[in-house]
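Final report, Chapter 2: Outcomes

The project's central promise was a pipeline that accepts a single protein chain and returns its three-dimensional structure in a standardized token representation, suitable for archiving and comparison. That pipeline is now operational. To close this chapter, we reproduce one record exactly as it appears in the project archive, with the input sequence first and the structure output second.
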Amino acid sequence: MPIYKTITVSPTTSVYIWKVTEAEEELSNGIELTPHCQNRMDGMKSEAHRRAFLSIRHLMAKAGYVDSDLYYDDFGKPHLKDGNHISITHSHDFTGIIVSETDEVGIDIEMQRDKILRIAHKFTPIEEYKTLANVEAIIRKLTIVWGAKESLYKIYAQQGLSFLRHIDVMDFTFQDARTVAEILYKGKKSHYDIEFLEFEGFTCVYALKMMGG
């Protein structure tokens, strides 16, 4: 089973990434879904979507969980019954989860595409990236910023939170592989650590809420 990458973020926090190459039947082996999740999967028209769904259950198994350990709140945010924090993402052939015993966490995987240039103004002050050497570098940087904001949105999970107006990702270089971010919403400020990595034309970003932040 191709777990693509495991990252130990801290002694209490891990990231697991899967590259989905197996057939649906192979991915079904050893996976027991709750009736709710079986219904969800049965309703998926796309085989790729079902395969991604199953691969996430394999990632959960790597982290020591089964499908019935997972539940979703009214906002659609996933939770673990033991009180640990989880976030889930999938993009094309890659799926990922982050699990933490101590921190609120969010994760996002995105394919690097030039489409992001057309929507950049909706989520970030684009002028900040005009200094980069070439279009490819701008696409890479914008994808990291988008992934960071997606990850933060998953942690914050409140209707009305705006990527452009409420979430600020501090500038960074590719070499840093990390940055920090702040959310200012309804007069409340919170702070987050962001880390990112790139592979096979994809970007994975994950966020952890800072203690006391």
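Archive annotation: The mean pLDDT is 93.
This record, like all others produced under the grant, will remain available to the consortium after the project formally closes.
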